[in-house]
Amino acid sequence: MGLLDGLKSVLGMRAEADATRAADPEDLFGMSTAYVTMAAELDYEATGDAALCFGDVDSTDFADATEEVETILDAGAAETGTEAEFTTDDHGYQWVVLHDPDFEDLVTSIHFAADTLIERRYGSRLLAALFGFQQADQRAYWVYSFRRGAYYPFAPDPDTPNERNSSVEFKLESNLDGELSLEADKAYWYPLWPDRAGNHPWE
Asked: Lesser CB count within 10 Å: N end or C end of the chain?
């Protein structure tokens, strides 16, 4: 199974078939308290980056829906200072990538983008939302799987490409259990590797 097939399976079709409950974009607001815990108890600071990953649809209506998201995020940038960019990765997935030192603005904007796609009847295309954190040279992400309606940690090993730092992931799980709705089945803790070493998964 290749990387693309794995992503479709774990965050997509298989995850939907095995879903324990319906995904709820309101779950994203759980990060509003989790980032405080990350800093206060674990010494992980938010990187100021977050992203929404979703599958493409070859239709004019879907293009209009993504344009609506982009237009409103651009219009709100003057008020919130949140910078938004739209990109497509090497596997054909689309990303809304947000940058803002105010974590609350990141959460609100990610929620808005996801909710807009759901209202436009493209909720089934949503795969994951990611929130980035850093401690020294260790990056860590909280990933929300829309198909599973749950979060899981992803921590790439800074010293070994395409290897995970499992001890970091388990520590994050232990400390945030109960504060976030966590994915109990670790088969769904799918790694989202960046295209290039040292970059975020959406780069």
From this structure: N
Query: Which residues, 6 or more positions from 143, have their beta carbon under 8 angstroms from its beta carbon?
Result: 128, 129, 130, 151, 152, 153, 154, 190, 192
Q: Which domains does the chain have, with CATH numbers?
A: 3-188 (3.30.70)
| Other C-beta atoms lying within 10 Å of the C-beta of residue 143 | 24
Q: What are the tens digits of pLDDT across the range 5-45?
A: 445 555 545 544 454 545 678 999 999 999 999 999 999 99
What whole-number distance in Å separates Cα of residue 106 and Cα of residue 38? 16
* pTM for this prediction: 0.88
Distances (CA, A) of 29 to 18, 38, 49: 24, 15, 16
In this structure, what token pair is assigned to residue 163? 């290897």
| Whether the Cβ atoms of residue 89 and residue 96 lie closer than 8 Å to each other | no
95: nearest Cα among 136, 124, 56? 56
- With 0-12 CB in 10 A as exposed, 13-18 as middle and 19+ as buried, what is 91? middle
CA-CA-CA-CA dihedral for 41, 42, 48, 54, to nearest 10: -110
What is the C-alpha separation between 194 and 162, in angstroms, rounded? 9
Report the alpha-carbon distance of residue 117 to residue 124 in Å, rounded.
9
Closest Cα to residue 193, out of 154, 167, 166?
154
The backbone torsions φ and ψ at residue 138, rounded to the nearest 5 degrees and listed phi first, read: -100, 115
- Residue type (1 letter), 114: A
Tokens matching residue 133:
């954190």
